[in-house]
Structure formats: structure tokens, C-alpha cells
Amino acid sequence: MKNHETRCSGFTSLSPIMSSVSSIAMLCRRLLPLHHPCGSRGLCGVVPDTVLSPQRRAEFIDRVSRQKLRLPAGDGSAPGAAVLAPLCRLHGTPGLLFTLRSSALNKHAGQVSFPGGKRDDEDEDLLATALRETWEELGLRVEREQVWTQLPAMLSHRLGRKPVATFVADVGEVEIDRLRPEPTEVEDVFILSLDHLCRPENYGQTQWRLANSPGYVMPAYINGPHRVWGFTAIMTHVLLHNLLPEVYSHKVRMIKPVPVDG
Q1: Quick check: helix, strand or coil at residue 155?
Q2: pLDDT of 156-196, one tens digit each?
Q3: Which stretches within the chain are classed as H helix?
Q4: What is the DSSP code string of 208-228?
Q5: Cβ atoms 181, 189 nearer than 8 A
Q6: Dihedral, CA atoms, 196, 249, 97, 225, nearest 10 degrees?
Q7: What is the per-residue pLDDT across 117-131, written as a single tens digit (0 to 9) for each?
């Protein structure tokens, strides 16, 4: 039997695999407010205007090309699905755009994800898949020139336990109210600022314990409109680790079981 364990803010607790959808829907339409304990520059010394600069883009692409992923990767087969991780700005503040899957879907309903899906026969390549799905799900048109690079392929339960290609793009300034989410697939769209995602109080981890196995650990992001975990959290972790290595300090570690008397 699997247990789902979340650790954050100095304590460990057991929780259901699926968290309930937040009732404060008003937060889902705006960026979480920023706080600047490190000064007016924000992000602990990183000037916000430079976070998505051409120089940082080049550095990000270089780091990703040398990335050695320690988390479980694909089985060697070619990816048959793709998602887009949309870096963006809301009122000039850099962030990352997420979607909440419709609660009416048969599989993985109510989970946070990036826009994406399985490759169609007419798709030129997997990047075309990611861009098409982003348009169909959100009404957000992204050009190939806006795409930075592809992250290491990872398995996704939502997309058939097959390797999934994740592309990172800078989609520019986003006006949430002008997007056109497909209601049969997307229940909500929200943006978490990079400042929020990099703060230690806003991340934890999900630990799975399996019989006859040490299990595995995945990152999780909390204190937002919806909890980010699973495949989407892994890709967010990899993205932030390579984009803001001087700020992002989250380490994913296995927690030893708590002894039970008797």
C-alpha cells in the first residue's frame, strides 16, 4: 500500500493523495503577492528584469544541456506526448503559468498541470504538439521562436506512463482574463511568481513508500491557489534549479520512517 507523505515547515504529516481544490477561487485569477525580505530587488538579490533576459536564457539552455537527472526518467523509448512550461510575466512580475484540470475528467481530474497532451498524427514534431495543445487548452498562441529549450524527458502517469517532452518558453506578458480556457479540459488557470516558487516556506515534498523498495520522493509546491505535485512539480523543480541556481535551494531528500512502538 502506498502512503503519501508531505513534509514542510519543519513537520511531517500524512495526507490524502489528492488535495481538495481550494475554495478561495478569487486567488486563482491573479498572481500571488510578492514579499521582499532580501530587499527591493526581490528574489534575494536577483533583479526581476534580468530573470528572463537573453543572457539568463543562454545560461539556462547551457545548464539544461548538462543536466544529470537523478529522478526516475523514461525507459529509453521516444516520447509520445509533450507539454509546455510557460514562463511569463503578470504586470511585469516573472512567473510560471499552470492549469487545473477539469474535475469532470475521467483521469487525473482536479490536478495541476502544464498545457499539453499526446502527439497527433498531423503534428510535425513534439514541439508542435505542445504548442497546439497550449492553443487548444488556453487560447494562448506561442511561436517557436519563444521556446527556449526542452527539459529531460520524464514519465507521466497522466499521459500513459510514457516519456513526455517538456518544452520551456517565454510567453511574455499574460492577461489571465483574456485567455480562453477549454472548459471540458481546464477548470482554472493561475500563475505563481518565481519569487513564490523559490521561497522555502512554499515547497515541500511528496514521499512514496513501496513494499520491498526504498520508494521515491518528489517535490511539491504549496501555499498557492492549488498544490503543485507529481510530474508537473518535478518539471518545475528542474526548471527552477537551472534557471535560478543562486536562489532556488530546494533539495529533495528521502525521509526515514518514524518508528512505531509495539
Answers
A1: strand
A2: 655 556 788 999 999 999 999 999 999 998 999 999 999 99
A3: 54-65, 126-138, 194-198, 230-243
A4: EEETTEEEEEEEEE-SSSS-B
A5: yes
A6: -40
A7: 999 999 999 999 999
Of 78-82, 90-94, 216-220, highest mean pLDDT:
90-94
Distance in angstroms (rounded) separating the CA atoms of residues 253 and 64:
21
Tell me which residue of 107, 112, 79, 73 sits closest to 96, measured CA to CA: 112
Lowest mean pLDDT among 103-112, 128-137, 141-150, 199-208: 103-112
| Whether the Cβ atoms of residue 224 and residue 203 lie closer than 8 Å to each other | no
- Residue 150 scores a pLDDT above 80: yes
Q: For residue 97, what is its C-alpha cell?
A: 503559468
Q: What residue has cell string 525507459?
A: 75
All 3 cell numbers of residue 66? 548538462
Instruction: State the cell numbers at 70.
Output: 537523478
Contact 7, 205 (CB under 8 A): yes
- Summarize pLDDT for 31-70 with one digit per residue, the tens: 443 333 333 345 655 667 789 999 999 999 999 998 876 5
* CA dist., res. 244 & res. 237, Å (int): 11
* Range list of β-strands (E), the chain: 4-8, 11-14, 81-90, 93-101, 112-113, 116-118, 147-156, 162-173, 186-193, 203-210, 213-221
Q: Kindly tell me the burial class for residue 110, based on how many C-beta atoms sit within 10 Å of its own C-beta (0-12, 13-18, 19 or more).
A: middle
* Cα gap 141→133, rounded to integer Å: 10
pLDDT band per the 50, 70, 90 thresholds, residue 27:
very low
Q: Would you say 245 and 197 are in contact if contact means Cβ atoms under 8 Å apart?
A: no
